[in-house]
Amino acid sequence: MTALYFNTTREDHRIAWLAALAITLHIVESALPSPIPGVKPGLANIITIIALIQFGWSTAAWVNLLRVLVGSVLIGSFLSPTFILSLAGALSSILVLRLASWLPGRGFGPIGYSVLAALAHMAGQFYTAYLLFIPHAALFHLLPVLMTAAVIFGIISGYIAHLILGYGSRPLAH
Amino acid sequence: MTRADRVVVILAVALLPFLYMTYWGPSQQGDALRVMVNGKETMTVSLHADKHITVHGSLGDSVIDVDQGKARFISSPCRGKQCVHTGWLGQGGEFAACLPNRVSIAVIAEEQRYDSIVF
């Protein structure tokens, strides 16, 4: 019997660890009841933000996309509308984080990144839902509620990332 | 928080009232009235010219009153008078029907208050 070996780098291991954390949060969260379809805390966003700040954008992108892929396979929603919306949200937030990470100067901290990612995720998901699944103007009546949830959960996830990154001892306003 | 963080949080929070106003705000005042008989559009009249319209339905004549941007059924040859009791219609998408006489009226505006109504 021949064994199959992959040459893995430290980077690969790091992505695998972070993705495993993100997938866990993703699955735990999928078990939570949601008052409105589309409103979820998005806790896995915390891992994406930490990956982005500590290891750079490509690690964050890998972690986020692996989370959507593996998370959906484990939940059983792979290639379903839920998966497509989740993927659209992940791609939008990753794209916006790429643009945000080019900001010169001190740039963004975890809270700024997190809010941007949450808004991009919601907007990407919303327009995908509108274009593919519910092409009806009535859907826009949900947009204010969904965006409110995105802002609130974006700030909360960002603050959790801020604490995990050890910025907790620093004052929040500086 | 960096300055960029603060700007993002403030802009994101400021976006929300704007979204609520845009998507939850009052719907538009109607511009015109569409009159349907037997499911077919027979005429569209402006809501800004006051007049009485007499429509020939399958039971008889329904009379519709258009007054200062609003419209209502005044009379209809039906038993229940649901159409008359519906009262004034003024906002985009508002709708009244006399089903026995097969006459219905709907207010037209750029933005409709209701997307669809099913009986």
What does this structure look like?
The complex is a heterodimer of chains A (174) and B (119). Chain A is mostly helical and 174 residues long. Chain A has a single domain (10-30, 38-168), classed as Arp2/3 complex 21 kDa subunit ARPC3, CATH 1.10.1760. Chain A has helices at 10-30, 44-55, 57-75, 81-100, 110-133, 143-164. The N and C termini of chain A lie far apart (61 Å). Chain B is an alpha+beta fold and 119 residues long. Chain B has a domain at 32-108: N-utilization substance G protein NusG, insert domain (mini-chromosome maintenance (MCM) complex, domain 2, Sandwich). Helix content of chain B is 23%, strand content 35%. Chain B is built from 2 helices and 7 strands, in the order αβββββαββ. Chain B has a 4-stranded antiparallel beta sheet with strand order 2-1-7-6. Chain B has a 3-stranded antiparallel beta sheet with strand order 3-4-5. Chain B starts with a helix and ends in an 11-residue tail after the last strand. In chain B, 26% of the residues are buried.
